[in-house]
Amino acid sequence: MTDRLTGERLVDDMTTAERARAERVESVLPALRAAAAKADEEARFPIEHVALLREAGLLGLVVPQEYGGLGGTLRDLAAATFAMGTACPSTALAYFFHNTSASRGLLPLEAVEAGLFTDEEIPVVRAFAEKVLTRMASGVWLANFASESVKSSSANITIATTARRTAGGWVLDGEKSFGCATGVADYYLTTAKLEGHDTADGLVTFFVPREAPGVSVRAPWDGLGMRATANNGIRLEEVFIPEEEALTIPGAFTRMLRMSRGSFVGNQLAIAAVYTGCAQNVFDVVIEQLTRKTFADTGRPIASSPVHQQLIGDMTVQLETAYLWLRRQLLLETSQPPLRPKDEVFRQWRLGKGSVTESCFQVVLSAFKASGTSGAMMGGVVGRALRDLAMGLVMTFPAERGRLEAAQLVTQAKENELFAVAERA
Length: 425
Fold this sequence. Notes:
- The protein has helices at residues 16-42, 48-55, 74-87, 89-100, 103-113, 122-137, 252-257, 269-292, 306-334, 342-371, 381-390, 399-417, and strands spanning 142-145, 162-166, 169-176, 187-194, 203-209, 215-217, 234-242, 246-247.
- By secondary structure, the protein is an alpha+beta fold.
- The chain folds into two domains: 8-257, Butyryl-CoA Dehydrogenase, subunit A, domain 2; 269-413, Butyryl-CoA Dehydrogenase, subunit A, domain 3.
- Strands 1, 2, 3, 4, 5, 6, 7 and 8 form an eight-stranded mixed β-sheet that branches.
- Helix 4 (89-100) runs antiparallel to helix 8 (269-292), helix 8 (269-292) packs antiparallel against helix 9 (306-334) and helix 8 (269-292) packs parallel to helix 10 (342-371).
- The longest helix has 30 residues, at 342-371.
- One of its GO terms (cellular component) is cytoplasm.
- Residues 147-239 form the Acyl-CoA oxidase/dehydrogenase middle domain.
- This is Dibenzothiophene monooxygenase.
- One of its GO terms (molecular function) is acyl-CoA dehydrogenase activity.
- Pathway: Sulfur metabolism; dibenzothiophene degradation.
């Protein structure tokens, strides 16, 4: 019987091809784990991990083989980010955002096949989409920059960065407040809005080279969350981008999103897998410590005390809760044919994201209590994870917002059922 791979703890029904890809992930875990504590202490993304992941072929994990990638799917990505999350959550998070870039290639191509673009638009859309995929497959690291510090009451992400036409291309101005691999990625795949547009149809996408004139790094990010993600964000001041490095067809962004199976661009659950992998590692480490250490007077394992038994039970329930939500969402977003219509899959994710991240945080909180003062060290596994997983409570949206939106979807649908058109007598 073959040894169980780390990714199989989440995706436990891997095909032969999926397992082969997961073995590539497994091969990099020792190096990621060895660098995790120092990277966290220094708040520095381990730059050597770029070459490590590139040489393993993992920068093209979810790129179709016809474009030079490994041909993986969301199942592969979830297993990979989970496995990396058990070793170095910071690298796992940055790797997740690199892979979200693939949606800017895959979804436009699906939209072309679905007939959502005109004959004149198709060559431009196809060229940009294929450039995204071939660059990733060749080992180019892409940082996906969408989020900004600007907020609105009606959207989770508000885009204020502007793009205006100039000779031979476009000029970008704005600031991106959140995006892993700042100063690390080869290109920042940047979302902006066309000057003069104030709806989602004006959202457009650009390849912004890391060293392009006018691109600068924001102040170092020193907050709750994963410290070694190079999450500083960027400023764009009069940054020129050539025409061929952009997809600026009005409405292209919204048309591509129609092809997503569920959450936003269809891969957001893989970020929740990062948190779940981190929580699983904490669980494993703490259980090993509590069963190995003994009470001086009785010789019994510390894990045998009633208080620790209660905490271990709580940890187990919360961890299993995270797995259940995550596996259900993964099934809904990858099953063929689809099990549920898109609106139901989307609603499930709005509930699931918060449920997974809150459960993972509770695992670490219980582990912190069970470890006592010896576990209250920021350089330790529990201390780092307590801060790392706090970010999951607010990233993209908190659980409360997801539940509110899900409730609104349910009640509005029910309200519509209460009204009918009667035949006139």
